From TrEMBL:
Domain UspA: 12-147, 158-290
Name this polypeptide is given: Nucleotide-binding universal stress UspA family protein
Family: Belongs to the universal stress protein A family.
Transmembrane segments: none
Highest taxon in the source lineage: Bacteria
Length: 296
């Protein structure tokens, strides 16, 4: 296994809001903090309605109540983290404003941002799909949407989507790093749906998509194989829609990894749409990685 630094300079940021999503987020983040020797920073957002400014005394009372409730949320979250490791360093911050804005602000000094996925669609929690999608698309660091660990394979592989784009390369790099921390392997997955219109004048019986996909996949992971020689690697080309390919592979995964936006030269694969679909549907933890310097 590659040697690890003694401690991370930046923490893992965890969004908490008091819903059942907090448990999944904290358990995943605490385990990751132990693996990476990183601190945790809890972030909770409270967005007050503008009309409260018309009554300063009422605004003050509501603010005090919200602050007290937030500290209760932080205490519970700290308990979940310290149940994993009593030595974990856990900081916290309350932000006044939107959940997405609070997490994006914190992401500028974070190694990861972690949000939980609630068990029901109608819960008002920090990882509602628009918030998760927005943060994943704009955060300068990887964003993880955590699920109940019962749905994932604890000793499973890190499965990463590849499409030949720059952001896909960043996703592959993150997947190998994560697999190295976990002591597991990487499955590099190139999934594609047949699109005959993308291949005019295709010779009968030819399968250029598979050959092109396999070549793109091999090129995309070549550098990481040299950098992480002890991490087992499987390269998998699947003739399936990318979302279906990832969902089919999910039961064997400890973590799925995709790019926030990707549009390589391989026809029919846009990782941005894939990441949004998996934020909604993945049964296992999902990491969304954004390329440095990318603006969306």
């Amino acid at each position: 296994m590659t040697a690890k630094p003694t401690v991370r300079r930046w923490p893992i940021v965890v969004g908490v809001d008091g819903s059942d999503a907090d448990t999944a987020a904290m358990e995943w983040a605490a385990g990751e903090a132990v693996r990476r020797r990183a601190a945790l920073r809890l972030v909770h957002a409270q967005e007050l309605p503008p009309w409260l400014a018309r009554d300063p005394r009422l605004r003050e009372r509501i603010t005090e109540s919200a602050t007290e409730r937030t500290e209760e949320l932080f205490q519970r979250a700290r308990g979940l983290a310290h149940a994993r490791d009593p030595e974990l360093v856990v900081g916290s911050q309350l932000e006044w404003g939107s959940a997405a804005g609070a997490l994006l602000n914190a992401a500028h000094e974070a190694v990861l941002v972690v949000m939980g996925a609630a068990t029901s669609e109608d819960q008002h929690h920090i990882s509602l799909r628009p918030v998760a999608s927005h943060v994943a698309a704009h955060a300068p660091c990887p964003v993880v949407v955590a699920r109940d660990p019962a749905g994932s394979s604890a000793g499973g592989s890190v499965i990463v989507g590849v499409d030949g784009s720059r952001v896909s390369e960043q996703a592959v790099e993150f997947a190998f790093e994560e697999a190295d921390y976990r002591g597991t392997g990487v499955v590099a997955l190139m999934a594609w749906g047949p699109e005959p219109a993308a291949w005019p004048m295709m010779p009968e019986g030819a399968d250029p998509q598979h050959d092109l996909a396999a070549a793109t996949l091999a090129e995309s992971v070549a550098g990481m194989r040299e950098r992480y020689p002890d991490v087992p690697l499987e390269q998998r080309v699947v003739p399936s829609h990318p979302v279906r390919g990832f969902l089919d592979a999910a039961p064997e995964a400890a973590l799925l990894v995709v790019g926030s936006h990707g549009h390589g030269w391989f026809p029919g694969l846009l990782l941005g749409s894939v990441s949004n679909a998996l934020i909604r549907r993945s049964p296992v933890p999902l990491a969304v990685v954004r390329a440095p310097g990318h603006r969306s």
